[in-house]
Amino acid sequence: MNIREDAVNAVKKSIDLMLPENAVINALSGFYATGKIVLAAIGKAAWRMSNAAHQALGNRISRGVVITKDKHSMGRIGNFEIFECSHPVPDGRVINATNKLIDAVSGLSVNDTVLFLVSGGGSALFESPQEGVSLDDISDITGQLLASGADIAEMNLIRKRLSSVKGGKFAALCAPASVTSIILSDVLGDKLDAIASGPAYHDMSGKDDALSVVNKYSIRVRPEIYELLNRPGIGEVSNVTSILAGNCSGLCGAAEEILKEYGYKVVTLTTTLSCEARAAGEIFACIAKEICATSRPIAPPCALIMGGETVVRVRGKGKGGRNQEMALATAIGIEGMSNTAFISVGSDGTDGPTDAAGGIVDGDTVSRLKESGINPQETLDNNDSYNALSASGDLVVTGPTGTNVNDVSILLLNS
Question: What are the beta bridge partners of residue 163?
């Protein structure tokens, strides 16, 4: 066994199995519409989801508007309008793209259907601020939340209150038409009101929940914004059918089956990993040491999988992402351990503001860093995992994958 190759292949193959095309085709197997069909797609997987829907429904779709992240479009899709915008902090292009999408669903009848394709990243890529809120307000607050270590559900609690299309408000704009929402989840626990901030799902948060996030992370907001966050969300939406078509559990399950085929005993520990990235890396390293010393909880050759989404609390001035930071922290903990490898990758192919999807490390990573004149712990403390893993040859670069169902992290040990 070459555990590094096995780790990379398992991750790439499991992501391939989660690509949106199959998810959308399966979800459309029972789709029925008598009137006009308008396609609306938001998120990092929007292009691939829309392309699959176009292949399935063809000219039955009267109009399509697709909003995705920069460099995630793969060309024209019929007569659909395709927009690329900034992520994770929204820029001015998102307002124009969102207005086009709102226009596409305006004036529909009760017999018409909006086919709403939702994937991770939709919160930043679909935005029309509430009256009294500017895009600069949303960008500033989003930046503060990212730097504070807030998780995606906490961030979306804030964003849905500041938006005129989130928290069920987009579904209201589509009425009286019905909405069929096909969703790829990037939110732990698959909470439909949190995925892309729930444009077609009512806000399930309490009146004080958004303010509690602001206070928890000491987020700076204008008094007018504070007052807006204190308002309750809208009630139930009745014109929506939601279909969950892919999630982190499916991603980890695919990795598990692939690794079993490679001859590993496999344990999936969780699909809801949610903590600081470096803490998760330290836990993985501790588990590796326990297996080597006692063969607990499982004897080599073995693989342990965790899926979810960690956060990075930015303390330094370096460059990196949560998966790279987790990999570097794990590398420090498994220094000198033979037949041991760890990989952590974002299923969307992007990890933080970098061109890497994540990192793969082994027992020799630290020695390679030291040979390059890099102090691993100091680099970790500076949140500079990208440059460290680049120097040690341990970056994983896939390019945009076209899907987004959280992250997968795998620890492999061979006897």
Answer: 129
DSSP secondary structure letters along 187-219: STT--TTTGGG-TTS---S-TTHHHHHHHHTT-
pTM of the predicted protein model = 0.83
Give the integer Cα–Cα distance in Å for 186 and 150: 15
Sheet of strand 81-85, all strands in order from the earlier edge strand to the far edge: 81-85, 61-69, 37-42, 113-118, 178-184, 240-246
Q: pLDDT by residue (tens digit) across 31-80?
A: 999 999 999 999 999 999 999 999 999 999 999 999 999 999 999 999 99
Q: Are the C-beta atoms of residues 181 and 243 closer than 8 Å to each other?
A: yes
Contact 325/383 with Cβ under 8 angstroms? yes
| Rounded distance between C-alpha atoms, residue 37 and residue 115, angstroms | 7
Give bridge partners of residue 182 from the DSSP assignment: 117, 243
Q: DSSP string covering 365-398, please?
A: HHHHHHHTT--HHHHHHTT-HHHHHHHHT-EE--
pLDDT digits (tens, 9 = 90+) for 154-178: 998 999 999 999 999 999 999 999 9
Cα 297 to Cα 244: distance, rounded to the nearest angstrom = 33
Strand partners, 69: 85
Contact 73, 82 (CB under 8 A): yes
For residue 20, whether the previous peptide bond is cis, meaning omega lies within 30 degrees of 0, is no
Q: How many CA atoms lie within 13 A of 174 on its CB side?
A: 31
Cα separation, 20 vs 119, whole angstroms: 9
